[in-house]
Amino acid sequence: MGQLSQVVLDGIVLGGFYALVAQGLSLVFGVMGVLNLAHGECVLIGAYLAWTAQHYLGVDPLIALPVIMALGFGFGWVLCRTLVIRVVERPPLMSLLLTFGIGAVAQGVLLKLFSSTPRVTTTGYSADVVSIFGLTIPTPRAFMLLGAVVILVLTWALLNRTRVGRSIQAAAQNKAAARVVGIDIAAVYAIAFGIGIALVFAGGTLLGSAQGFYPFLGPLLTMKAFAIVVLGGVGRMTGTVLAAMVVGLIETLLASYVPSVGTGLGIAAAFILVVVVLVVRPNGISGGKQVTAGV
Amino acid sequence: MSSGTPTVSTPGAPPPQKAAQRLSAAPVRALAASRLADPRLRAGLFAAGLAALLVTPLFGLNNSALLLFSTVFMWIGLTSSWNIISGFTGYVDFGHGVFFGIGGYTAGLLVTHLEMPFWYTVPFAPVFGFVFALVVGYPLLRLRGVYFSIAMLGAFMAMRELALVFRDFTGGSGGIIFEAVIDRTLFYYVFLGVAVIVVLGTVWLRRSQLGSSMLAVRENEIGAEARGINTTMVKLTAFCVAGSITALIGSLWAYQTAFIDPAIMFRDVLLINLALMVTLGGLGTVWGPALGATVFILLRETLWETEGEDFLVFFGVALIVVVLTLPKGIAGSLADRVHLARARRAGKEESR
Amino acid sequence: MPISEPEAEVRRDEPGQRPLLEVRGLRAGYRGVDILHGVDLTVGQGEIVCVVGPNGSGKSTVFKALYGLIDVREGSVLLDGEDITDYGPQRLLTTGIALVPQQPAIFPSMTVHENIELGMYLERDRGKIRGRVAEVFDLFPKLAARRSQQAGTLSGGERRALEIGRSLMLRPRLVLMDEPSVGLSPVLVREVFEQLRELRDAAGLTFLMIEQNAKSGLELSDRGYVIERGRVTYSGAGSELLGDDEVRRTFLGVGKDD
Description:
The complex is a heterotrimer.
Chain A: H1 2-32, H2 39-57, H3 61-82, H4 92-114, E1 129-132, E2 135-138, H5 139-161, H6 163-173, H7 175-180, H8 185-210, H9 218-232, H10 237-257, H11 266-280
Chain B: H1 15-25, H2 29-32, H3 39-55, H4 63-88, H5 97-113, H6 118-121, H7 124-140, H8 145-165, H9 167-170, E1 176-177, H10 184-207, H11 209-219, H12 221-226, H13 231-257, E2 259-260, H14 262-265, H15 268-281, H16 288-303, H17 308-325, H18 329-351
Antiparallel strand pairs in B: 1-2
Helix pairs in contact in B: 1-18, 4-10, 4-13, 4-15, 4-16, 5-7, 5-8, 5-13, 7-13, 10-11, 10-13, 11-13, 15-16, 15-17, 15-18
Chain C: E1 21-30, E2 33-43, E3 48-52, H1 59-66, E4 72-79, E5 82-83, H2 89-95, E6 97-100, H3 112-118, H4 126-139, H5 141-145, H6 156-167, E7 174-178, H7 186-203, E8 207-211, H8 214-220, E9 223-228, E10 231-237, H9 238-243, H10 245-255
Parallel strand pairs in C: 3-8, 3-9, 6-7, 7-8
Antiparallel strand pairs in C: 1-2, 1-4, 4-5, 9-10
Helix pairs in contact in C: 3-6, 6-7
Organism (chain C): Prauserella cavernicola
Domain ABC transporter (chain C): 21-254
Protein name (chain C): ABC transporter ATP-binding protein
């Protein structure tokens, strides 16, 4: 079964990327209760930033990664302080509409700047492969998995081992309590949103050299991230990673074993999975569960 | 003094009539005040407006004007039906375009595979919309609001994928071409009929027991359940009704356009437009959706000739601005303003 | 509604000494609509003072105004002579006013110990935090026994104790308590109030609370204020107010409905 293990490996690599993107969505949702419908577009902004850095400045995406993440944090922070904060404690429709609008604007701007032609960030190692146990991964995909793992571990440490992380956890668990101990909730929101966007900018950067991307990819990525968050339980990092692996695996398995139509069914598969899980657990995955930002 | 001060809300009072009165009375308060609260006068005005619209095509409107009118009517139908699930029960359906696509494809597939004449397929569209709403709504409507919203967006995207992928059955991205019927006057009346029925249906619903139950679900679902309302049934009914109307409109639109493919039947812009129009007009109000749709389409047609990426940017910005400045829509904001003014006046009187 | 002059106040503190908290002519409200029309009240060092009033009387607005959650349009709030009227929540904490909110205010997925530690979120010195945690556990031995348990598993009374204990981390001069009896059985309410008295005696703390449950609120505190329609209508020792026919007739009758 040489082929199956290869497909599984591919699924894990893809799952690593999904975990990164879904963790960003989950963090923001867990802390603020805002489902960011512009999430996928933010992944793409990261991807286009890396592409631009490579294409015009000749900077390798992995070198640019920390800078792009910093930009992501800044972008998320500003977006939160200026727009998202105004809808946080309002009915969910408001934040859905707002982020939907932000997503539409981002998609339009990306189309204007980069057209709908798919791009790939080409690097010196784009054509290389890494082999382990007789299986092969293209080098950019290996970096994608590695990068995702490193960033997720750092995120876990940030959320669980630092004062900022503690304040984010506190705000996610009980806002009233966080307020009375002197935590500035608006600041926590901005930081959490910033971290969330930094994570997806990183995801986009890593994705960009591993496969083609184009502006219309945004909503698909948002949907997959959402499916993963629902499957894994909001704010539970291990759950998110596991669910991301499941979705990644299903996708690669479908693409390899369902002839001709398998590749186009990513959302349908993820969505059907979500519905099945919700039928099995009618209260919803996180119904009645305590929500935390990390762990 | 305090005895004459209106209270902001009376718990336990039947909301429908009171709210309906407030919403329709608010915008015109400055003009004719209480006169318009008279239901007979409003019914008269409605009948007069409808009569005017019925005879308008007889005075030789050109095709593009007819198309503009039927577009407005279509959107009134779409927004008003979306409002039943999203506005009345508070379960905001972010993938409602899925029903539009299902309607169009029901017609398209029946015409191509069973060689049915188009008009015979019309009754099937709402039926399929209803069935899809039932199957998807039963598990999804048990979710908390936000989950439902985005899960419906997932359903929308999944159906688009299916329409694209099973090309032997659906024609894939090549789509399906209908025998063209270019009779603008016909579609003018068809969509006018749909719009009138949906709007009157909404008015009736808002006053009915079922409508009150929907509002109860929106205000406090657990409380509604405790008062003996079968909330699952109420939500499902709202969803199925909204879904079947939208599917019907989708099938009619497909025939008017004479062509369908996944990209136009399941288009994202439909979702943005629905959200934008209803938010603009006033989510959960009776006349807000129709008002928002009319204002929006007329504005778009007269002021903007945008396409593609400009279109996206424009609509995105418009959505953001509406959410931040008019969160309750035109109808809701006007009603609020009147309330606030009353409260201020009352406050002043009391402090004297 | 006849509005009587505030009666002579019973003070625990020495004559001539200024009260710990002094609220003068407070006017505040929302969106231009006043809810408080000039509220005066004082809290002496080491007192337990309770503000009662029917729903919508403005008693919770008093707290919001004190805690900087709504704008004060007129009047002033002095803490030991310092004008704190315009202070926001963080500044109030560091100035010595802690708040125990009405809604559940624990972090359910953190341990009791972590919850207590967060009471000193504004302090970065680890050593100092450790010392204070030990002090708080000394005051609340029941909590100390459960220090590594998740706070979400505590009983209602323990949660309230945790909230109070955590609010003491910054050594506040005044603790505001928003409806401490909400969600607790009468037995637990009594227990919580007794705990407040013990804390007052042991650590010299001062409490100002608002209570929907007027009877137990007034019974168990030193002094009370009755607020109706945004004004103080009665004030005096808790037992005095409870014995006042006027108060009983116009106000405590409302309490029977809950």
